[in-house]
Amino acid sequence: QKExxxxxxxxxxxxxxxxxxxCTYSDRGSQSFFWYRQYSGKSPELIMFIYSNGDKEDGRFxxxxxxxxxxxxxxxxxxxxxxxxTYLCAVNExxxxxxxxxxxxxxxxx
Amino acid sequence: DGGITQSPKYLFRKEGQNVTLSCEQNxxxxxxxxxxxxxxxxLRLIYYSQIVNDFQKxxxxxxxxxxxxxxxxxPLTVTSAQKxxxxxxxxxxxxxxxTDTQYFGPGTRLTVL
Lengths: 110, 113
Known about the structure:
The complex is a heterodimer.
Chain A lengths: L3 E3 L4 E4 L4 E7 L7 E6 L6 E6 L3 E5 L2 E6 L4 E6 L8 E8 L5 E3 L3 E6 L1
Chain B lengths: L3 E4 L2 E4 L5 E7 L5 E7 L5 E9 L2 E4 L6 E3 L9 E3 L8 E8 L7 E3 L3 E5 L1
Parallel strand pairs in B: 2-11
Antiparallel strand pairs in B: 1-3, 3-8, 4-5, 4-9, 5-6, 7-8, 9-10, 9-11
């Protein structure tokens, strides 16, 4: 059974700080990795994806991938109260299926 | 506007009833997916379809059925055989690009009375 593990949190950070969210996965053959944000009662929305080792930046968000250690992380710089949500890590499986972690709850305190 | 629509937003079902959840997309995506989300849990795959008139079971297909007669539509039926159907149901479609990114509809919250 392929697994994606996330710390459930909540992770609490003050406004303006860097939030660091982590995810580990079990399938070494996984090629694509996704971060989704989900507000309470809403559907997931894509933040970014990454498929190469290293960092990928998009605005205040940076995804980091280390395939050798089988982890992917998401950094949120200058965290805002509007960033408070659940962040879902997803990893692709053979046949374009995604396996989702249970999510990390982020709370940004003003 | 291109996007994925799901209806209804809220659905209440009596025990023993079958109900059908609608999912429509106008993104011209070939692949569509149904997930179930329970409180505090991640998304679990129910069924997926990579092309019209073809679909495969996901991890928790028991008690559910689907059809894919049109590219734009992928309805999900929750049958009376599903023992614990109360959940948030999410439909997604994917763009078939190099990473085959999935995009989600707004969801249907099903409650069994």
